[in-house]
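Input (structure):
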């Protein structure tokens, strides 16, 4: 008789300008990082298999990864997501009703769609509430073909919010009130409001650190590459907010030259950050109107947000909600065993780590 066991797949986060890969292994009672891999590329060439296949082959052949099974997060531009409310009457199946209701919102024929529901409420007097995700069948088949050509096998295509929520549940105890989850990318970001396993609302926005880093490079001539600008942002970020508070309290300030740099970086950064704040306001207002004005316990920001120093305190000041920047690899839940020269580089791997946490069965 065959024994069926579960193991951890290669988690893939494929974006329009990057691929992140991660895999776990068991080490005692904890999970350890088996392997991490990352490549950035020109988003203009993203649609070409000539770009994806060679990089995915590198992952399939990488010495730090084991097996060929993968759980995949594809670019958010390939996915649409929307909420539905519905009732199930006698003689109807839950799935059939969701498909019927989803058809009203799809921008393409239902026959051409692949549909899933990562979140569904318990039945109430108002019926069910569910989050629907859908993609064109031809795009899913395209990625299946690309992965097969690369020597990998896609076991599951994962939804970005589900991926982030899985990672968050692994790192933190569930809050009693809804929370805001955000994953900041280079050119795009995810914002979601969740309550335990339920997704109240989510949106993908064309907002990332790219514009901010480019603005710094434009204003500071010595920042002649992206890495230098990122380190500069990490060093100074939004720390000028602290300086303003010290002035209000008549405390002595430090080096005038450093104070001036802090002020300039702050003036460059805050208009861009305010765009993200505005998006958070919008999604929170929607949830308050749809779900009886719930309180928000906290905001957790993953991804490249960690390169913006003091962003958490700025969010708390502007939104009045406790905020935490999260680098998953700094969590005590993971056994520190990875091939990064600097563990603080692990923050952008959030979605890849979330997909890698989804076990698959192996014969």
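Output (sequence):
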């Amino acid at each position: 008789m065959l024994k069926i066991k579960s193991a951890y797949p290669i988690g893939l986060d494929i974006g329009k300008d990057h691929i992140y890969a991660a895999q776990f292994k068991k080490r005692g009672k904890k999970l350890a990082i088996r392997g991490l891999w990352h490549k950035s590329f020109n988003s203009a060439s993203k649609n070409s298999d000539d770009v994806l296949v060679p990089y995915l082959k590198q992952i399939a052949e990488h010495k730090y990864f084991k097996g060929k099974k993968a759980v995949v997060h594809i670019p958010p531009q390939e996915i649409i997501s929307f909420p539905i409310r519905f009732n199930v009457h006698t003689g109807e199946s839950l799935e059939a009703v969701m498909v019927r209701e989803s058809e009203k919102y799809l921008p393409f024929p239902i026959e051409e769609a692949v549909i899933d529901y990562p979140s569904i409420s318990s039945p109430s007097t108002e019926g069910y509430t569910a989050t629907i995700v859908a993609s064109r069948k031809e795009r899913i088949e395209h990625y299946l073909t690309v992965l097969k050509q690369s020597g990998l096998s896609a076991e599951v295509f994962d939804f970005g919010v589900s991926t982030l929520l899985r990672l968050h549940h692994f790192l933190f105890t569930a809050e009693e009130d809804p929370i805001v989850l955000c994953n900041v990318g280079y050119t795009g970001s995810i914002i979601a409001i969740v309550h335990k396993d339920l997704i109240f609302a989510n949106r993908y926005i064309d907002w990332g650190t790219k514009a901010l880093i480019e603005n710094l490079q434009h204003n500071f001539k010595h920042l002649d590459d992206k890495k230098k600008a990122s380190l500069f942002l990490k060093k100074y970020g939004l720390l000028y907010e602290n300086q303003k508070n010290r002035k209000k309290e008549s405390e002595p300030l430090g080096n005038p030259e450093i104070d001036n740099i802090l002020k300039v970086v702050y003036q460059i950064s805050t208009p861009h950050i305010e765009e993200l704040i505005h998006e958070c306001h919008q999604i929170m207002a929607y949830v308050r109107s749809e779900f009886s004005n719930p309180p928000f316990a906290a905001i957790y920001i993953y991804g490249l947000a960690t390169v913006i120093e003091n962003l958490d305190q700025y969010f708390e000041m502007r939104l009045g909600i406790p905020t935490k920047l999260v680098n998953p690899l700094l969590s005590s839940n993971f056994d520190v065993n990875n091939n990064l020269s600097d563990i603080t580089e692990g923050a952008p791997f959030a979605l890849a780590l979330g997909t890698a946490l989804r076990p698959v069965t192996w014969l």
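Notes: Residues 245 and 251 are 9 Å apart (CA to CA). The radius of gyration is 22 Å.
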